[in-house]
Every structure is written in structure tokens, then in C-alpha cells.
Design goal:
single chain, alpha/beta, Thrombin, subunit H, 7-stranded mixed sheet, 6-stranded antiparallel barrel, membrane, cellulose synthase (UDP-forming) activity, transferase, glycosyltransferase
Length: 723
């Protein structure tokens, strides 16, 4: 016989085991498998709620303070279950539009160029630097679409002369306006009034479209009721939590659950919404709602979706990696972004065009309520702060509950919920990581939510800083506040460990609270680690490739190597012999397929791996490298591990010390004349002309199969090398 506390979990786990794993993470028609799993969880949760509301209420005569504490916790808990029910409803109806995109692409590619719809591409910018903007502009000009049916426009609210000149060299339109009224929404509306394409595509300054973006997305507009097609926000850099923990390779970015699963579920209810960047909008639909984006909320994109729903237009979601951009590059940048999102979501509650206004179906009213911006921070505060409150006051959130009841009723309900989410979203939901991330941003988002509920409008619009403007400072508040709470909790544990100073009444209460307190302190310690940003400047992100290249450390020399990682300003080379590149080597010539010969310098050598940096000035060769890295489908996103290994990795970071790697700086002397001459004279060696830059997985077997290329004897490198 199973113990009582394992029976509910066995029900959920058994249901999951009866269903093919691919069905749980799949799409329609296999969503019925997800429904079956969620119904099993609902049974366990219903059993818990009956017990919670019937058996754990305060006794008559309980002190007012303890009653306030109890009912506050109960209200938060009930709100969580409502949010969970809504989330499960969304995930049970996920829609996959890839098949429709396949059919649409085939239909569009069969058309004559003149029969393609016209598309305007809007790149909205305010203060981003060229290192950010150049990738997006080059990517937009590389879109696979008939040239005379495509117009690329840079919308510069910063009114910068250097950007106007850059746009002229790239052959794209440069548009400005008088003033900056209504921020990004006003900028886009000004461009809508000055263009006439049948559709317009919006890109934030940092999002680079893949070359096949339009052919994949435009086919969904075959349905006349589709007003917007939204593509997920995928990133080519690590977010602050991945960076500060050093876990880019083990843990997905914090937006994967939303863009990977939730938006697909919303689409199944016709409640997907425009997320600003990576969207295409039908001009007829925008004209139906007044000819432009609404101004009532600083999240104008969500408000636009609601306005279109009232006119019969839906937003379709195509869950494919068709554009890549920058996740917030620092904690401060992330806080600015999330506070803006939270404020905008709250603002729509006060608008006639919001979820409480006329003309919406009940499902849309429910799914567009932004309650998660309030509920999630409160849950994390309660979860991490409650052990300290209980240890210092003796209060209990579950008065009268025994250890066996908690283990057999409450614990299975919580565990079953997390297990179900893990099974349905195995690559994007990680309970510990989610808790840490919410705790990290709560001190910024919760005050924003509360102040917006009191005063919805009149707040300044803040752009998420990108590039050098993002900074890289440690979050002092979140590096100190968790320490303070850990200290208070630890002292409370110490006091209650002695019968003479014990505050908690029963041994049952003490043992459960002690376990909870230890877990809370571990989570708080991880939060503190995340708040400590590593020193150093933000570097360009590298892509994993496996591409043949050549280098030389003296005139006429050609040595074969393989590029393992590549960015727009650096590369990691695998060498046949470490003596090919040694510490006396500073300047070298590097030949990259599709790009040509570059002036490079050595940063460091690790065994048979050399790290080099290079100068690639603005021009066609730099554009070609950007196209190869950012617009052809190279994917440097995370390969996620199991939830257990991710959780263990998070906890291990509490004691982990990051090892700083020293690199040699750029040489102070100019490159040797022979390098300058060879770079100018021989852009791409004949041996590399038919080689293209491809991802590592697809290129492993042929990396060294170059006809006519031979390794030069390392002995020829002996002696002096030009520095």
C-alpha cells in the first residue's frame, strides 16, 4: 500500500505515464492529453482546497494580528490557484501555426514578384548605438522578399545625423518627426501616415529578422480575420540571471515559458497579443481601429490587439525563431523593461478599450486581466518571508494542521501542479529558477504595480537601455536585502531551537517551519548571487560554428584551422598544433569564409584553442558577417538540462567563485605592413570560396574536408615572429 501522501502524486504521475510524452508537449489535437493531465491535477487541488477552507481556519478568539496574517495568506493562495487554473486552461488549448505557415510560404513563393503584397519594415529607435542598430538594419535589408515590394524605414526619435548618413549608405529610408510625443507608439504612427504598404512589420532596434521571416509569417494573412502575426522574442545573448550565474548553457532565458508555451495557448483562445517587435500588421486592420496604435497605455501593442478584437481581427502567433534580439543586458535594464511592462498592463484596466470595456468575449476579458503582475510578487514575498514571520511571532498559515495532513494533502497539491507544468513545458519551466527570477524583480515591479493602481497615468516612458547604455552594475538592494532576511530567519531558527526561547507552540509546527526556513534561505542566497554582476564590459555574443578557416603569422603563410565560435569582432580557433600560435604571436591574418582576410590579434591560447579578436570596419564585409551570423538561422540559445540538474546548478552557485580569464589587450603597435597588404589584396582565399558559415551541428563532419588545403609544418614557425 502507498502512504497517503503519495496517492495524489501517483494519480498525476500515472496519468502522465499513460500518455505519450510527445503528446504532453505537443499541439492540437494532442491537447486532449494535456486536458487529461490537468484534470488529474484539478482533482488533487480540489481535495486540498476543501481541506484548506474547511479544516485550517483560525479558532474563535484568535488575536486580530494573527487573523489578519492568516486571511492575507489565504487570499494570496486563492489568487494563485485562480491564476493556475487560467494558465492550465491556456496550455490545454495550444495552437501550432507552422503547418499553415508551410502552406502559406509555398503559395507565396509560387507568385510572381509583382503579385507579392507590399511590406513596410519599421525599425523604431531612440538612443541605441550603431553596434546595436547595424545588425537590425542589415538584417532588414537581407529579407527574402521581392525588392520592389519591400521598403525598410528607420524611425529615429533621436534625430541623429550619423544614423541618417548610415541609412543612406545602406539604401534604407530615414524618417524622423517633430518631437517625441507618445514615445514609440507616436513614432510608429508617424511612419504609418507616411507609408502605404499593405502590411507593416515592426522591429525594435535590437531585433534582427531571419531572411525567411516574411515568407514564413505572411502566409497566415490568407485568413482575412488575421490582423496581426506575432513572432516570439528570441535572444542571441544571455539574460542577466544566466550571465550572473554563469548558466547560459544550462538554463533558458526567463521569457521562454511565455513565448514558448503561454502565447501558443493564448492563440488557441484567439487571445494572443501583439508584443511590439517581431510583428506584422495588416494596414486595413489598423485603419479599422483609427489608423494608428492607441495611446492610452505605454504597452500600446497589447491595447492594439484588444482594439482589433473588437473589430473582428485576431492576432495569430507563429512560434518559430524568425528574429533574434537582445535580452536585457544588465539587471538595471531588465528592471526598466519589466517595470514598463507592469505599468502598461495595469493601465489598460482603467481604459474603455481595456478588458472591462464593451465589445469583448468573456474569455478575452479573463485572459487579458494582468493580475499576474500583482499575484506573482506577492506569492514570492509570502513564500520567502513567511518562515521568518512564523518563527518570530508563533503564527501559522495553517492553524491546527498536523504534519501528516500537510504531507498528504498540501504537499501533493503543490508538487502535482509543478510536475504537470514540467511535463507540459519541459524546456521552459524550472520551479527554482522561476522563483529566483520573480524574487529578483519583485522590489521593482510590485511598487510600480501599486502606484499605477493608485495613479494610472502621468508616468514617464523609459526605454530599455541597450548596448553600452545598459551598464553592468551590481544590484545593491538585492545583494543586501536577501542577506538581511536570511539573517532574521536564521536568528529565528536559533531562538526556536532552544526550548527556553522557543516561540512556536508545537514540535510539528517547528519541524515544518524549520524545513521551510532552510529552503527559503537557500533561495534567498541564490537571489543574492544573481544580484552580483560579474566585472567587465558586455561582449559581443559568439555563435557556435564548425567552419574551416586559415591564418598566417608571417607573409604568405597559410595554416588551416577550424572556427569553433564566431562573433562580429572575435573568434575561437581549434588548431592542429598549439605551436601554430604562441604567446609571441600578436598580429595575424585571419581568413574567414564569406568574409575574407582580416587583421586579427591574439588574446590567449588554451591548449590547442586560440582566442583572437579582429577589426572589421563598417562596409560590405562586415555586413556579410552580420548576415551569416544573425540572419541565416544560427542558434546559440540554451540546450536545457533536467529541472533537477538546473536546480542543483543554481544552488551550487552559492559557493561558486567565477574564475576570471585574462586576455591580452590589443597590441599598441600597428599591424605589420604585410598583413595590411594581404588583407587588401586577397579578400577570400580560393580554398574557402565555396565554404559557408554554418552551425556546428550541421558542419561537424565536413569541417576539415577542404580540397587542396594542407597544414604547414609547425617547424616553419620557429624563430622570430613579427609582432
Amino acid at each position: 500500500m502507498l502512504p497517503d501522501y503519495l496517492v495524489p502524486l501517483a494519480l498525476v504521475f500515472g496519468t502522465a505515464m499513460l500518455l505519450p510524452r510527445s503528446w504532453l508537449s505537443g499541439r492540437t489535437p494532442r491537447n486532449m492529453a494535456v486536458v487529461a493531465l490537468f484534470l488529474a491535477v484539478a482533482g488533487v487541488a480540489w481535495r486540498y482546497l476543501q481541506w484548506r477552507l474547511g479544516e485550517t481556519l483560525p479558532e474563535p478568539g484568535t488575536a486580530i494580528g494573527e487573523q489578519v496574517f492568516f486571511y492575507t495568506v489565504l487570499a494570496i493562495e486563492l489568487a494563485v490557484w485562480v491564476e493556475t487554473a487560467i494558465l492550465f486552461a491556456m496550455l490545454s488549448r495550444r495552437r501550432d501555426n507552422s503547418a499553415a505557415a508551410d502552406a502559406g510560404e509555398a503559395r507565396l513563393r509560387a507568385l510572381a514578384p509583382a503579385d507579392h503584397p507590399t511590406v513596410d519594415v519599421f525599425i523604431a529607435t531612440y538612443n541605441e548605438d550603431l553596434a546595436v542598430l547595424e545588425k537590425t538594419i542589415v538584417g532588414a535589408t537581407s529579407l527574402d522578399w521581392p525588392e520592389d515590394r519591400l521598403r525598410v524605414c528607420v524611425l529615429d526619435d533621436g534625430q541623429r545625423d550619423w544614423l541618417r548618413d548610415y541609412c543612406a549608405t545602406k539604401g534604407v529610408d530615414y524618417l524622423t518627426r517633430e518631437g517625441n510625443a507618445h514615445a514609440k507608439a507616436g513614432n510608429i504612427n508617424a511612419a504609418i501616415a507616411r507609408t502605404d504598404g499593405e502590411f507593416f512589420m515592426v522591429l525594435d532596434a535590437d531585433f534582427v529578422p531571419q531572411q525567411n521571416f516574411l515568407y514564413r509569417a505572411m502566409g497566415l494573412f490568407a485568413d482575412d480575420n488575421v490582423g496581426i502575426v506575432q513572432i516570439p522574442h528570441s535572444f542571441y545573448n544571455a539574460d542577466p540571471m544566466q550571465t550572473n550565474l554563469g548558466m547560459r548553457g544550462q538554463m533558458p532565458d526567463d521569457q521562454r515559458l511565455f513565448f514558448g508555451e503561454i502565447m501558443a495557448g493564448r492563440d488557441g483562445w484567439n487571445a494572443a497579443f501583439c508584443c511590439g517587435s517581431n510583428s506584422i500588421t495588416r494596414r486595413k486592420a489598423i485603419e479599422a481601429v483609427g489608423g494608428g496604435l492607441p495611446y492610452g497605455s505605454i504597452t500600446e501593442d497589447m491595447l492594439l490587439t484588444l482594439a482589433m478584437l473588437r473589430k473582428g481581427y485576431v492576432t495569430r502567433y507563429l512560434n518559430e525563431r524568425l528574429a533574434i534580439g537582445l535580452a536585457p543586458e544588465s539587471l538595471s535594464a531588465m528592471y526598466v523593461q519589466r517595470a514598463r511592462w507592469a505599468r502598461g498592463a495595469m493601465q489598460i484596466l482603467f481604459l474603455r478599450e481595456g478588458p472591462f470595456g464593451p465589445g469583448l468575449k468573456l474569455q478575452h476579458r479573463i485572459l487579458f486581466l494582468p493580475t499576474h503582475w500583482l499575484v506573482q510578487p506577492l506569492v514570492v514575498l509570502a513564500t520567502l518571508g513567511m518562515p521568518a514571520i512564523c518563527l518570530w511571532t508563533g503564527w501559522s498559515p495553517l492553524p491546527g494542521a498536523t504534519t501528516s495532513e500537510i504531507l498528504s494533502i498540501q504537499l501533493p497539491a503543490v508538487a502535482a501542479t509543478m510536475l504537470a507544468l514540467r511535463l507540459v513545458a519541459p524546456g521552459s519551466y524550472f520551479p527554482l529558477a522561476s522563483t529566483v527570477h520573480t524574487a529578483l524583480q519583485t522590489p521593482r515591479t510590485l511598487p510600480t504595480v501599486l502606484t499605477t493602481l493608485v495613479r494610472p497615468h502621468g508616468h514617464a516612458f523609459k526605454v530599455t537601455p541597450k548596448g553600452k547604455a545598459a551598464g553592468n552594475a551590481t544590484d545593491r538592494l538585492m545583494s543586501l536585502a536577501p542577506s538581511a532576511l536570511v539573517l532574521v530567519t536564521a536568528i529565528g531558527l536559533y531562538l526556536n531551537s532552544d526550548i527556553n526561547t522557543r516561540i512556536l507552540d508545537t514540535a510539528d509546527q517547528l519541524s515544518l517551519t524549520a524545513v521551510w526556513a532552510v529552503l527559503a534561505m537557500l533561495v534567498l542566497s541564490v537571489v543574492q548571487v544573481v544580484a552580483m554582476s560579474p566585472p567587465g564590459e558586455i561582449e559581443e555574443e559568439k555563435f557556435a560554428v564548425d567552419v574551416p578557416c586559415m591564418f598566417g603569422t608571417r607573409p604568405g603563410q597559410r595554416i588551416a584551422a577550424t572556427i569553433a565560435h564566431l562573433s562580429v569582432d572575435s573568434a575561437t580557433l581549434r588548431l592542429a598544433d598549439a605551436t601554430d600560435m604562441h604567446r609571441n604571436t600578436r598580429w595575424l591574418r585571419l581568413d574567414i569564409p564569406e568574409v575574407g582576410a582580416l587583421k586579427a590579434w591574439l588574446q590567449r591560447v588554451d591548449g590547442n584553442v586560440a582566442h583572437v579578436a579582429f577589426d572589421l570596419p563598417e562596409g560590405e564585409r562586415r555586413d556579410q558577417l552580420i548576415r551569416a551570423l544573425f540572419t541565416t538561422g544560427l542558434d546559440n540559445s540554451t540546450q536545457t538540462l533536467s529541472a533537477f540538474r538546473v536546480g542543483l546548478g543554481l544552488l551550487a552557485r552559492i559557493l561558486h567563485t567565477e574564475r576570471r580569464v585574462e586576455t591580452l589587450p590589443r597590441p599598441k603597435n600597428a599591424p605589420p605592413a604585410w598583413i595590411e597588404l594581404e588583407v587588401a589584396r586577397a579578400p577570400i582565399p580560393p580554398e574557402l570560396r565555396d565554404v559557408i558559415i554554418r552551425p556546428a551541428a550541421a558542419w561537424t563532419q565536413v569541417a576539415w574536408m577542404l580540397n587542396g588545403m594542407t597544414l604547414i609544418d609547425p617547424a616553419t614557425l620557429e624563430g622570430s615572429v613579427e609582432a
